[in-house]
TrEMBL record, chain A:
All copies of domain CopC, residue ranges: 30-126
Gene: copC
Region forming the signal peptide: 1-22
Annotated keywords: Copper, Metal-binding, Periplasm, Signal
UniProt cross-references to InterPro entries, sorted A to Z: CopC-like, CopC/D, CopC_dom, Cu-Rt/internalin_Ig-like, Ig_E-set
Species this chain originates from: Candidatus Rhodoblastus alkanivorans
Family per record: Belongs to the CopC family.
Origin: domain of life: Bacteria
Subcellular location: Periplasm
Signal keyword on record: yes
Name under which the protein is recorded: Copper homeostasis periplasmic binding protein CopC
TrEMBL record, chain B:
Classification of source organism: Bacteria, Pseudomonadati, Pseudomonadota, Alphaproteobacteria, Hyphomicrobiales
Name listed for the protein in its UniProt record: Transporter
Species, as recorded: Candidatus Rhodoblastus alkanivorans
Keyword terms, alphabetized: Signal
Signal peptide: 1-34
Superkingdom assignment: Bacteria
Amino acid sequence: MNIRAKSFVAALAVAAAFNVSAFNAPAWAHAFLDHAVPAVGSSVQGAPRELTLNFTENIAPAFSGVTLASAAGGAIAKGKARVDPSSPATLHVSIGRKLAPGTYVVRWHVVSVDTHHTSGSYKFTVAP
Amino acid sequence: MNRSLRGRARLCAPRTSILAACAVLAAFASQARAHTIVGNRVFPATQTIDDPGVNDELSLPTFSYLTLANPDGSPGPLTYSLGWEYMKTITADLGFSVGSGGYNWQQRPNAHGWSNIETELKYVIWQNPAAESIIATAVNVEWGNTGSPQSAELPSDPFSTITFKLFAGKGLGDASADWLKPLAITGEYDFSVPASTYNADGSENPTTIAYGATLQYSLFYMNSYVQELPWLFRRLIPAFEADFTTPVSNLAPNTPGDFGTNVTTGVVGPSLYYIGQYFEVGVMAQVPINSASGTHIGALAIVDFFLDDIAPNSIGKPLFGPPQPRGHY
Ligand SMILES: [Cu+2]
């Protein structure tokens, strides 16, 4: 084969491998936070009773968690983060008490099923 | 890949008698294309320079369009190319890639040909997930005469070229001001040495340095960590890119009416990336920095498949060792 044919065949082989794998392997990616309630960086009226974190990928509950703190750093009591059975990319966390007006920091860490770790934090504000 | 395009186009453009042969020279040492994840930071596979990490992925195609200039200021050939690259991780920090500038065609005059094949070994020297920082190095070989033969309209380079590369990336997620957190910068520095200095006709193949950088403002990052955005914007990374090539030795004497043989060429311009679940697409407007680099705004585009996410249990993981420990704290 000349080089042109060779490159073409190589490209085809790669494309074929890619296609086969795409259909046969479970597909998981890095889980990044897509949206949340209350929303990342938002200001809300009224104290939320629950945090909802929606990720870009399904996550493994055993390795995932959420903490909630006031802007000053004081931890806020809350329930255990649980994965929504009907939507495995969503975490729900119930908040133990009514939040006073102020800014709060949510810290999360999750693992997608392919073992990719991601973590992060964001703020939201409860308006007076 | 675009470095060679510009650098060699400059050398060629004056020699109108062999214009057709030039676009091949114009055609690319393609660069490794990869997206990189360090801590919370996704560095997309960028277009003017490579991103600073290794991964399992397939760039197919990479597209380039540029209008070259003649030394008298008149528009030169219109050049197009469609390239590809496949990168495989050997360990989580060591990657091997094979690729090519691929198929090149030009108008004014019409001609076409295939670029040489390139291979690259890339190694992540250091990274810090919490600081979203990474440094990597690579050795790239463009294999002479593996593209179109010397008898073709656009022959490939008859000699091999070895390039030593250094990469760095830094995300500003640890900045104190919220508006700074989505920012990231990446940079690349290359030193390219042709395996043979002299050509059959007595002309010289210059040693070149190439250096480029990208400034990225990640709406993807902003949405996750700073401020939720409307869904249309959540996966976008606007950026500004710049890339330059300077011949440093084995320079032919300057001839009157030509571009100087030691002139720095390059492009700058805005780009935009969309980060999907399993792939990325990017486009860039490339603005030539001088007439030796081109006459009009050109375009770059890339489609990049994330094989680590598409097939994490087979071709998407390193041959040895755990997958991507770099993502872990
Ligand atoms: Cu992943």
